[in-house]
Amino acid sequence: MKVIKAISGALLFVERAVVVLLLGAMVAFAFLQVILRNVFATGLLWVDPFLRHLVLWIGFLGASIATQQEKHINIDLVTRFLSPRATNVARVFTNLFAGSICALLSNAGWTFVASERSTGGSLFTIGNMEFASWWFQIIIPVGFGLMSLRFLIRTAEHIIEAFNPTPTVQHTTNVPTLDD
Amino acid sequence: MKIIVIGILLVALAFLGAPLFSIIGAIALAAFYSAGIDTSAIIVELYRLASAPTLIAIPLFTFAGYILAESKTPKRLVALSQALFGWIPGGLAVVALVSCAVFTAFTGASGVTIIALGGLLYPILIQERYEEKFSLGLLTTSGSLGLLFPPSLPLILYSMVASNSRVAGGSVPDVTIDKLFVAGILPGVLLVIMLSVFSIRHGLRARVPRIPFEWNTIRAAVTDAAWEIPLPFLIIGGIYGGLFTATEAAAVTAFYALIVEVFVYRDLKLFSDIPRIMKESMILVGAIIVILGCAMGLTNYLIDEEVPMKLFQTIQELISSKAVFLILLNIFLLIVGMMMDIFSAIIVVVPLIIPIATAYGISPLHLGIIFLTNLEIGYLTPPVGLNLFISSFRFEKPISEVVRATLPFIGILLIALALITYVPEMSLWLVELSGTR
């Protein structure tokens, strides 16, 4: 369990750092592009496709963090009325299910990236440097893979908690808070 | 038989709280398997997200909204509206409505309005001798008010999802963000005005004390919020005046909000608060993106199989008049809005309903406004509307009390909904007038 916690923590640290870096870049480049377009009537060709792929990266990493914190969007009708133990049992099943679906989607993603890689298209070029499409697409299988791993960790945690009277896993509800 | 078992299983998992994207992904996987198509086709569809020009607006506006929510903007916003509207009888209630609407437009009705602004306004309302029941209902209702105003995230999402679907006849509906942003303004104003009239009437009856109108207070409040007041005008004016597109408005808003809150007001610290806010806001963005991505795969499959058209044929046999269809549409959407959060409701329901509604002669723009108004009311609909729970949690009142307090407000919103539904000009007139791109 300790090993799992350590892995999960390290993952979170990396994901957070990358999200912050990419979002910072996105805010800066998107604004720069508006200035270039409206003030100087020009623009960088590569910025738009680059930014759109950044959204995919940020989206998948954000979704992975959402998995770790159980903040995915769901219809939380039944568990609002369940006991903590029953909720735990329900979470075992839902996390296991989501984890398997993510694994299948990750697998489909690998197939997609492999075929894109063999076709060898490039997304944009800066100077002489060509940026291959698959470098940016790789986040799809990686993202689903990360989520799959996270869902399985969550499943394990809920199994342990279902047998354990003292709560070890923090429950996150759908009620938003400003300071968590 | 097999399909029925899988269907029941998925519905059960959904109601037990499985992430919606995994349910949609599972349906897509099953559909492609059974059709004998390699599942990487789902990823091909998902990847089309990266060619949607408006996609960047989602993270940028969400980030901007979170920045404003976490800074002292709510305080300044309340102070400003109090100075402007406090002198009206029932003015404080109007203050609550206006400031919540503006705030929700920026933060996207995730319940954060009740937490942030409701917490500020409730004690003031009670102190000014507004009835407890009235205040509770007012703030619960205000929590989703403002969804129709730019740059609300649900408007952006509706435009994206609609542009990925087909109208009756097979063409792509013309629902750009810029048009939708303009279409929502009059209906949004109608909601605020109707609720304001009700509040003023309550204020007169309850004889709440009025705050005297003072230029000095206004001047102070305006000076305080001087850097934030331009924001809505920048967005609406910029798009309306053809200065820039909604996506460019998102870039400007995010950059401006970051600079103003960190370097001008110094409400947030660049190296501690901002990374935390970035992470929090991108959790929401990630949750939306994966649902959107999985739904893209499924939607295209459904369109290929002509599912919306088959649905339409069935419905047409039962309902012949547009007026009856609209009533049933409203009832259906109220139930959807009560059970699902607004983002997944848009992503899942819009592609199915657009071809049907357009076949009845409803404009996709008008449909969007009807859709979002319904979902806004769905937040308050007992027994399981989300705002009821958030309000009960925030103000520490039992759900039953919140429900009773909110009922009169729901009544008013339903009247407004009828107007919005049966007077399409309210949504479409400004769009035609402005000739927005």
What's the total number of strands of chain B?
A: 0
Query: Unreliable runs of chain B, pLDDT <50, ≥5 residues?
Result: none
Distance between the termini of chain A: 24 Å
SSE topology string of chain B: HHHHHHHHHHHHHHHHHHHHHH
**SSE class of chain A:** mainly alpha
Shape of chain B: globular
Specify the oligomeric state. heterodimer
The largest β sheet of chain A comes out as: 2 strands, antiparallel
Treating each run of at least 4 consecutive H or I residues as one helix, how many helices of chain A? 5
The most extensive contact between chains is: A-B, 68 and 75 residues
Please give the share of residues in helix of chain B. over 70%
Percent of residues of chain A in helical segments? over 70%
Radius of gyration of chain B: 22 Å
Q: Give the spatial strand order of the biggest sheet of chain A.
A: 1-2
- Helices and strands of chain A, in order, run as HHHEEHH
Structural class, judged by helices and strands of chain B?
mainly alpha
Span between termini of chain B: 49 Å
Q: What percent of residues of chain A are in strands? A: 5-15%
Shape category of chain A: elongated
Write up what this structure looks like:
The complex is a heterodimer of chains A (180) and B (437). By secondary structure, chain A is mainly alpha-helical. Chain A is 71% helix and 5% strand. Chain A has helices at residues 2-40, 47-68, 84-119, 133-137, 139-163, and strands spanning 122-126, 129-132. In chain A, a hairpin with a 2-residue loop joins strand 1 (122-126) and strand 2 (129-132). In chain A, helix 2 (47-68) runs parallel beside helix 5. Chain A is elongated and about 65 Å long. Residues 168-180 of chain A have low confidence and may be disordered. The termini of chain B are far apart. Chain B has helices at residues 2-15, 20-34, 40-47, 57-70, 73-85, 91-107, 112-127, 132-142, 153-163, 177-183, 185-206, 215-224, 230-240, 246-264, 273-304, 307-318, 322-339, 342-359, 364-378, 386-395, 399-422, 425-434. At the A-B interface, helix 1, helix 2 and helix 3 of A face helix 1, helix 2, helix 3, helix 4 and helix 7 of B.
